[in-house]
Sequence to fold (502 residues):
Amino acid sequence: MLTRRGLLLAGGWLAAGAHAGKAFAGASRDEVLAALPGKRPLIQRAFRPPNFETPLAQLAAPFTPNDAFFVRYHLAVIPQVDPQQWRLNVGGPSAQRPLTLSLRELRSGFEQVSIAAVNQCSGNRRGLFSPRVPGVQWGDGAMGNALWRGVRLHDLLQRAGVGADALEVVFSGTDGPVLPQTPAFVKSLPLERALDENTLIAFEMNGRPLPHWNGAPARLVVPGWTGTYWMKHLTEIRIVPTAFDGFWMKGAYRLPTGAFPGAPFVSQQTPETTPITEILVNSLIITPVAGTRLRRGAHAELAGKAWDNGAGIEAVQVSFDGRRSWRAATLMQDLGRFAWREFRIAIDTSAPGPLEIAVRARSRNGTQQPDTLTFNPAGYHDNIVQTVSVEVT
Amino acid sequence: MRGAPAGIVLAAGVVLAAGALVLARGGGVLWAAAGEITQLKDAPGRDQTVGRCIICHSLEYIPSNTPAMDRAGWQKTIQKMRERFGAPITDQEAQQILDYLAANYSGKS
Fold:
């Protein structure tokens, strides 16, 4: 039996393989890799409710494997859903023809479509914030890219009949709180985003049924918007004429109004705060990892991912000299505008010495990764230029 | 230390008891079962803290949030848990939990 100290040290060892350099320097060593049933070992940020982060190396593939995809829950009661018994109710005060669908009816009753999209937690990289802020201390891996297959939310809403007074669409799933007085996880979208042709109710991920921990048997997929809207284990869709006032809209997932770019959520906005909505342009260096020693004269390449709100990545620039000069990286295969885009660039190893590598992505929406963090108390939207230091020897 | 190759981690051959973590030595197979891994510091107020917090969540949040926390931060969190999430914590327990967390898990710089 190892002591507590032993466990911490072991955790530190493991975390070293999973965490960004700048995060590791400031983060707790108290990190372990551990596996939920059906998942490979991921970084255990919390066991209950389960919050597990994808290690950096698992983000290298074009599509993040289902068993490596991050897991994020707010509340600890997460029933296994029997797909035969599962029903999806579509109704609400602004629905003209409420309906209930089985999984078979959902799959067969509407056109099936697929979309490649990044699912990124609003709080991804919170653990890298300076000054530090409370919350799940995510590193870089509360995100992944998958091919989602399902039906358009638009088509369900049309069948249910969207009343002229409809303002928002409200979503809830089967997972819930331990205590009845704890607010259930319920979220809303503006009507126009709910009706967007890219918003899906997905039942497959990368060609397989959704894993339990990622929302089986069906979840919402809101490409370009942060993960908080991607309701898992979806069972209720309500079309409503007023702004939904639940805790998870009014009391969480909010930003200072006007502090960040992104689609407005007018019906939920106040002069002080506004809901987080779209993903900001961002990038991630996957190789080389910080501290790597590159052999002088040997072939070496930098690789990573860039993504945004679905406008599409326009360019990725890399600096090897501490942000003094920048070169364009090669953008690899386009998997779709809501997916991430791999980039690569050769590393010049002809001269020995340290290399201060920085990467910045630019979106077709006109935004570029900033150099400095826009602080917000919940620790959202860390999309600042990342750096790694390596050495040619 | 960003992204040390998995092989290095595996070569360490770390084997922990109690099923928390098992890494196969050198074979590239890694097995680990998720579970409660946090044991809070033994100090006055620990039992009240563990007893109330684990009703809803495991304990990693306490050490992992320490770098962001001071007494005022823990007070705000306890208040949020009671008022927003309905945690059944009496005033007396809240004081004991606050004293314990402030004394043992304040790391805000």
Remarks:
- The helical segments of chain A are 4-16, 21-26, 103-109, 153-160, 191-194, 247-250.
- Confidence is low (pLDDT under 50) at residues 1-29 of chain A.
